[in-house]
Amino acid sequence: MRRTAAAAALAALLLAGPGARCLLVCSTGALAPELARAPAVLISALAYILIWGRNETKARALVSALAAKGLPAGLAADLEAALAKADRVAAATTATRPCLCAGAIRPGMHLGLIGALTPAMSEAEPGLLPRTRLFADDRDGVLAKGGEVVQAIAAGLIAPAAIEPDLAGLVSAPPAWAAKEITVCKSVGFAGLDLVAAEVALRGLPPRAGQA
Fold first, then answer.
1. Sequence ranges of the domains in the chain
2. How far is Cα 67 from Cα 155, in angstroms, rounded to an integer?
3. Radius of gyration over alpha carbons of the chain, in Å?
4. Intervals of the chain under pLDDT 50
5. For residue 197, which of 38, 72, 168, 171 sits 20 to 30 Å off, Cα-Cα?
6. Could you give the C-alpha distances from 73 to 83, 167, 194, in angstroms and in order?
7. This model's pTM is above 0.85
8. Which residues contact 190 (CB under 8 A, 6 or more apart)?
9. What are the tens digits of pLDDT across the range 1-23?
10. What is the CATH code of the structural domain delimited by 2-203?
11. Are 95 and 31 in contact (CB under 8 A)?
């Protein structure tokens, strides 16, 4: 969970505008707390975290849990109103029908699409993608199973070449940000992230007896 959220937060750090202050988390599942915590650690400008979920009871419980840890969390009871405030969006749902409408996404926003892990699923309307700069955590993985991206390509809305550098490329050469652009990073996960997480975990372990 933490490695997925950390990768999404890193993409947002590299692709979102320098003045972005409001994060909208569209999720109430097991990943949702980490999607709120990771950006709060990485992004110094972050001032507000809005939580939206189809189950408002779960959303309220998550807001309370985050607030108890000192995070500036609040409930987003209305998704459209929350999108009008948000600079960054992190979505991790099991939606098969898009909850993020293309018309509600404005220039300058960054979307991290972390759910929709099969071609039949979609968190954002595929029709949004032609208006965006599209990135991926892993290009081949996204082309194979990245919900909205697969659907947009199948509908002829974008070509595979529309996907710009993946996460490794972003880290080595972050793109210049422009206020008129919408950026999207589609995530499906890949083995390299597991290896990085394992290395970080091992570095944090105390040395075994007999080791320096």
1. 2-203
2. 42
3. 17
4. 191, 205, 207-212
5. 72
6. 15, 28, 29
7. yes
8. 137, 138, 141
9. 677 888 888 898 889 887 789 99
10. 3.40.50.720
11. no
Confidence (pLDDT) at 178: 84
The whole-angstrom separation of Cα 190 and Cα 65 is: 29
Per the DSSP assignment, residues forming a β-bridge with 150 are none
In sequence order, what DSSP letters do the residues of the chain get, joined into one string? -HHHHHHHHHHHHHHS-TT--EEEEE--STTHHHHHHHHHHH-TT--EEEEE-SSHHHHHHHHHHHHHTT--EEE-S-HHHHHHH-SEEEE----SS-SB-GGG--TT-EEEE----STT--SB-GGGGGGEEEEESSHHHHHHH-HHHHHHHHTTSS-GGGEEEEHHHHHHSPPPP-TT-EEEEE----HHHHHHHHHHHHHTSPPPTT--
